[in-house]
Write a structure and sequence with these properties.
The complex is a heterodimer of chains A (595) and B (387).
Chain A: E1 4-11, H1 17-27, H2 45-50, E2 57-65, E3 68-76, H3 84-91, E4 96-102, H4 109-120, E5 124-130, H5 139-150, E6 158-159, H6 168-178, E7 191-200, E8 204-213, E9 215-217, E10 221-224, E11 229-232, E12 235-239, E13 243-246, E14 248-250, E15 254-258, E16 272-275, E17 294-300, H7 306-319, E18 324-330, E19 334-341, H8 344-358, E20 362-364, E21 371-375, E22 380-383, E23 395-410, H9 414-423, E24 427-435, E25 438-446, H10 447-451, H11 454-461, E26 467-478, E27 480-487, E28 490-491, E29 497-500, H12 501-518, E30 526-532, E31 535-542, H13 555-573, E32 576-578, E33 581-583
Parallel strand pairs in A: 1-3, 1-4, 4-5, 5-6
Antiparallel strand pairs in A: 2-3, 7-8, 7-16, 8-15, 9-14, 10-11, 10-16, 12-13, 12-15, 17-19, 17-20, 18-19, 21-22, 21-23, 23-25, 23-26, 24-25, 27-28, 27-29, 27-30, 30-31, 32-33
Helix pairs in contact in A: 7-8
Chain B: E1 11-17, H1 38-51, E2 61-68, H2 76-89, E3 92-102, H3 109-116, E4 122-128, H4 132-138, H5 144-156, E5 161-168, H6 175-188, E6 192-197, H7 205-211, H8 220-236, E7 240-243, E8 246-248, H9 255-261, E9 265-269, E10 274-276, E11 280-284, H10 288-294, E12 301-306, H11 309-321, E13 327-328, H12 329-336, H13 338-353, E14 357-360, E15 363-366, H14 368-371, H15 374-381
Parallel strand pairs in B: 1-2, 1-9, 2-3, 3-4, 4-5, 5-6
Antiparallel strand pairs in B: 6-8, 7-8, 10-11, 11-12, 13-15, 14-15
The structure holds guanosine-5'-triphosphate, iron/sulfur cluster and magnesium ion.
Magnesium ion (MG) is lined by residues 17-18, 42, 53, 76 of chain A.
């Protein structure tokens, strides 16, 4: 155990965590030359295409150093704010963290938030100044920022290029010298923390654990404390590039267990594994359940696929415990599911995975945050969907979630950013100059205001320099109205939104304009209206299609035209009908495309 | 495999002559404004003919169509060589319909006299409009006088089978002018008319110029209105609207074009030409230099498409609905089966209710109102492969 080191790599998005992991894997010969590729731990297609890490990845390395053999368990974490819960879980399995800072970008919002997560768990933090090979690197300046932030000594900051490999040996040395070996008693009753789980279609659920105390052997009769389920440890082992089975593992070790678990509900990340006999009486402090931030309806394009969609979402959930869902129905869309996501990126990824991994065509509706509606009788109802709002006459008031957001920016963009935040109903709470030209501002804002286009706007007004982190603060009373969209006088429930009264008019107008672009012309005029209650606040018309016929249909035209019409037919089949109006899928997400 | 009404099955040959004097703005055909390969083209064409002589499996060729491009640019000598070779290689029916597309600017009494001496027995004249400003908008070579004269000279030369092309929906073409164009046509006494809505195809000069604001955009409402005028006027004059864009007095239908709509077989020769023998569709390369290089080998074919049952059905629905023969549910049942027939009728019922389709016996026909929406209706009746 004294030669084991458990650590994670944490940073703001894109600061080079996965690339540094590549170098560590290379230096320790964990990965052969042949298997080497960039960000090798980003194994999902989606991660590779988008160049970001979505899920934490654990891997074990062996390293011979100063005459001794060490086992190094590394966990690479995602940097995007949507996935910060992945970071907090990984941290619970480690004694140390490499805090990476991009030398050209400096300290950013998630540098700080992730560092605090690590500090709160008493992790040893090793600051790494990365990308020093870059021309735009400002190593001295960023080094000052790091020293200021974590209060370390100048010589503690390691200068590295994960790209060229410069300084990687020093990182390995620091891991061994500075990160404490895991503590724990191999002879005590078993206590192992489940920090992640993945689904494998051949092997079922595979849980990743970190043994805090005790020893676990293959075949042992074990119990999951929170779920109270019992299993046999069919296979245990460590996580190399592939799973590597072991007979016995003990305190301080990180590994996986396969025990014939079929349903994701049986595995709760944060749960404790112990033995059935000689059980540990103490469960490890797990983590809070992740709370979804935004909700949206997901409906099968083909209504017959409802059951298949359910089983697809369930399977996705096996790999993604943060995804929650419940059945719902809509007059416009039929039967589907209300899903809760960590953020818009998460929502996008779920939708994309449904498409790729399960070949499910889905319609996603406008996302919204979770509201609390108070009725006149004093009851509180959690509302995940505008149509779930109690009747106007029974509604006393609504509360909406607020966040505290930290924005770090170059001071020259501060003015623009303040304007943006205030526009989004933000109230400034604090302002701290990190250095002479870098400032951290804290705003209190309604979550619903940042769900849509806040992040993109922030990036564009700061030329990409500002970074942003947030956490939920609580609920506050809000002056919200329900905005409905009518097509030829029929309300389309899936297009309703809850919105602040002050924004309702401009929002309604933009919605109508956008829908006019998205709804194809049909044989009759289509009136698009936005209304609050019975009051129409905006109107657009999609003009009737006067003519839809090809002039020439000879020889080669036939095949060309047939293909075109076949495509049209396909599109038609995917449309939803409200009254006599056909609505394409894209229209249900119109709100995300408002400019 | 999925042959249409067997009694209609006839075979034809299409020959694409890819040369023009200048490019019309709306043109999306494969044709070149340069005539530099004109002399070697016919050699290549004859080679291709020999190489693909078995495509029609010896079926009797009842129609030959020289289209383009501008076939009237081809020297009459070349026409004769083509005729000779076709008769040598194919089983051509005695009184086969042989159409040549001619542009008014190429037509002269002298040329027509020479033409008379070839196998050509039907002329299709690309008039488009009898008004200068319309011709100018379209960037046609000829002027309004040539348009008038060409028709007369063709009739004087003794071409009995004649047809002209007109275009409506041109922004410069007012409704009054459209009436006049139709009147001119009626005055000629010609028994066949092809009338096309001006269509802005992507990647054409027209699309570009409209995009740049240099030409007035085409107005869908004008186009629809003029289509309705056309249908009405032609009906009044006793013409049969036998295909969306084609009208004729009984007995004067274009045999060749009917092949396309009735599922007949045809061999397409020349660059970009398209062939169909009941099983596969094929395209020749749309590149003259490449065509000339490859014509002797089967390599002139660029792309082959083998149709599935659903695709055959879709083509049948799409083309038959456009014709006065209609879409025959009984035929669908016989060839494609009960499921497809039920599907077709099911989808059709909505349009029957909207009076855009009507039934007569086992057949579905577009009503005059339905003719405006022929594409959307056809798409609705389509069958999706993976159903
Ligand atoms: N020049 C240079 N580029 C680097 C270095 N380290 C990483 N990069 C590049 O920075 C980009 C982001 O690297 P990643 O390793 O994917 O960053 P990450 O922190 O894992 O990103 P997320 O997991 O999405 O938060 C990639 O294009 C890398 O090639 C470095 O030392 N020098
Ligand atoms: S004459 Fe016909 S082929 Fe030639 S450019 Fe004009 S439209 Fe195109
Ligand atoms: Mg990464």
């Amino acid at each position: 155990m004294k030669n084991t080191r458990n650590f994670c790599i944490i940073a703001h998005i894109d600061h080079g965590k996965s690339t540094l992991a590549d170098r560590l894997l290379q230096s320790t010969n964990t990965i052969s030359e042949r298997d080497q590729k960039e960000q090798v731990l980003d194994s999902m297609d989606l991660e590779r295409e988008r160049g970001i890490t979505i899920k934490s990845h654990a891997i074990q390395m062996e390293y011979h150093f100063e005459g001794q053999d060490y086992v190094l368990n590394l966990i690479d974490t995602p940097g995007h704010v949507d996935f910060s819960y992945e970071v907090s879980r990984s941290i619970a399995a480690c004694e140390g963290a490499l805090l990476i800072v991009d030398a050209s970008q400096g300290i950013q919002a998630q540098t700080i938030s992730n560092m605090y997560l690590a500090m709160n768990h008493d992790l040893e933090i090793i600051p790494v100044l990365n990308k020093i090979d870059m021309e735009s690197a400002m190593p001295d300046e960023v080094e000052d920022q790091i020293i200021e932030l974590i209060g370390c000594k100048r010589e503690d900051v390691l200068r590295v290029s994960a790209k060229t490999g410069f300084g990687v040996d020093a990182v390995l040395e620091a891991i061994i010298h500075k990160i404490p070996a895991p503590k724990g008693d191999p002879n005590a009753p078993l206590q192992a923390l489940i920090f992640d789980s993945v689904f494998n279609s051949f092997r079922g659920i595979i849980a990743y654990f970190r043994i805090m105390n005790g020893t676990l052997s293959k075949g042992d009769h074990v119990k999951f404390v929170a779920t109270e389920k019992e299993y046999h440890a069919d296979e245990i082992g460590v996580l190399r590039l592939k799973q590597f089975p072991k007979q016995t593992m003990s305190a301080g070790d990180v590994g996986y267990i396969i025990s014939g678990i079929k349903s994701s509900k049986e595995v709760k990340v944060g749960d404790t594994i112990t033995h059935v006999q000689n059980a540990s009486t103490i469960a490890i402090d797990g983590f809070e359940n992740v709370k979804p931030m935004v909700f949206a309806g997901i409906y099968p394009v083909d209504a017959d696929d409802y059951e298949e969609l359910r089983s697809s979402i369930e399977k996705l959930q096996l790999n993604d415990a943060s995804l929650v869902f419940e059945p719902e129905s809509s007059a416009a869309l039929g039967f589907g599911f209300r899903c809760g996501f960590l953020g818009l990126l998460h929502m996008e990824i779920v939708q994309e995975r449904l498409d790729r991994e399960f070949d499910m065509d889905v319609i996603t509706t406008v996302p919204n945050v979770q509201f609390k509606a108070y009725t006149t009788s004093g009851e509180m109802i959690e509302v995940h969907n505008p149509s779930g709002l109690p009747e106007q006459t029974k509604l006393d008031y609504i509360e909406e979630p607020y966040i505290i957001s930290q924005i770090i920016t170059k001071s020259e963009y501060l003015g623009n950013i303040m304007t943006l935040c205030i526009e989004k109903r933000g109230v400034m709470k604090n302002q701290v100059y990190l250095t002479s030209d870098r400032v951290e501002v804290t705003f209190e804002m309604p979550l619903s205001e940042i769900v849509f286009d806040f992040y993109d706007k922030l990036k564009s007004i700061s030329r990409g320099y500002a970074s942003f982190d947030y956490h939920i603060e609580g609920y506050q009373r809000a002056n919200l109205v329900k905005l409905d969209i009518l097509l030829n006088s029929e309300a389309v429930d899936a297009l309703s939104t809850l919105i602040h009264r002050d924004n309702a008019y401009s929002f309604g107008r933009r919605m109508c304009e956008k829908l006019r672009e998205l709804i194809p012309r049909q044989q009759f005029d289509i009136a698009i209206q936005a209304s609050i209650g019975s009051k129409i606040i905006a109107r657009e018309t999609v003009k009737a299609l006067r003519k839809d016929v090809t002039a020439k249909c000879y020889g080669g035209d036939i095949s060309r035209k047939r293909k075109l019409l076949e495509k049209q037919k396909k599109g038609k089949k995917r449309m939803r009908q409200v009254g006599n109006v056909e609505i394409p899928q894209t229209a249900f997400l119109a709100v995300l495309k408002l400019d | 495999m999925f042959n249409r009404q067997f009694k209609f099955i006839v075979a034809g040959i299409y020959i694409h002559i890819p040369f023009c004097r200048q490019k019309c703005h709306y043109c999306n055909f494969f044709s070149l404004a340069s005539q530099k390969n004109l002399s070697t083209f016919t050699d290549a064409l004859l080679l291709e003919m020999a190489a693909r002589k078995d495509y029609l499996s010896g079926e009797t060729v009842k129609t030959i169509y020289l289209g383009g491009g501008t076939p009237s640019l081809l020297p009459v000598e070349d026409l004769k060589r083509i005729a000779e070779k076709i008769h040598q290689l194919f089983n051509v029916e005695e009184n086969a319909e042989v159409t040549l597309e001619a542009n008014p600017d190429d037509i002269s009494p002298d040329y027509l006299q020479q033409l008379k001496a070839t196998f050509v027995n039907r002329l299709s004249i690309g008039i488009q409009s009898f008004f200068a400003d319309d011709l100018h908008y379209l960037n046609r070579v000829h002027d309004e006088n040539q348009a008038q004269r060409a028709v007369k000279e063709a009739q004087d030369a003794g071409f009995e089978k004649l047809t002209i092309d007109l275009i409506y929906g041109i922004p410069t073409l007012t409704d009054e002018k459209w009436e006049k164009n139709l009147n001119y046509f009626f005055e000629t006494g010609i028994q066949h008319l092809s009338a096309y809505a001006l269509t802005v195809e992507p990647r054409t000069a027209l699309a570009h110029l409209i995009g740049k604001g240099k030409l007035t955009a085409v107005d869908e409402f004008q186009s629809a209105r003029q289509f309705e005028m056309l249908i009405q006027r032609m009906e009044n004059e006793g013409f049969v609207h036998y295909e969306i864009s084609n009208f004729a007095h009984p007995g004067h239908y274009s045999k060749h074009n009917s092949i396309y709509w009735l599922g007949g077989h045809y061999l397409g020769l020349g660059p970009s030409a398209h062939s169909y023998n009941g099983l596969s569709r094929q395209w020749n390369v749309s590149n003259l230099a490449q065509y000339i290089r490859q014509a002797g080998v089967e390599g002139s074919v660029d792309e082959i498409e083998i149709l599935t049952k659903a695709q055959h059905y879709n083509e049948y629905v799409m083309t038959s609905l456009r014709t006065s023969w209609g879409c025959d549910l009984e035929h669908i049942e016989n060839v494609f089966g009960k499921i497809m027939k039920a599907h077709c009728f099911n989808e059709a019922s909505k349009f029957i209710a909207m009076q855009q389709l009507r039934t007569e016996g086992s057949r579905l026909f577009l009503t005059n109102k339905g003719k405006l929406y022929a594409d959307g209706i056809a798409a609705s009746l389509f069958f999706e492969e993976n159903l």
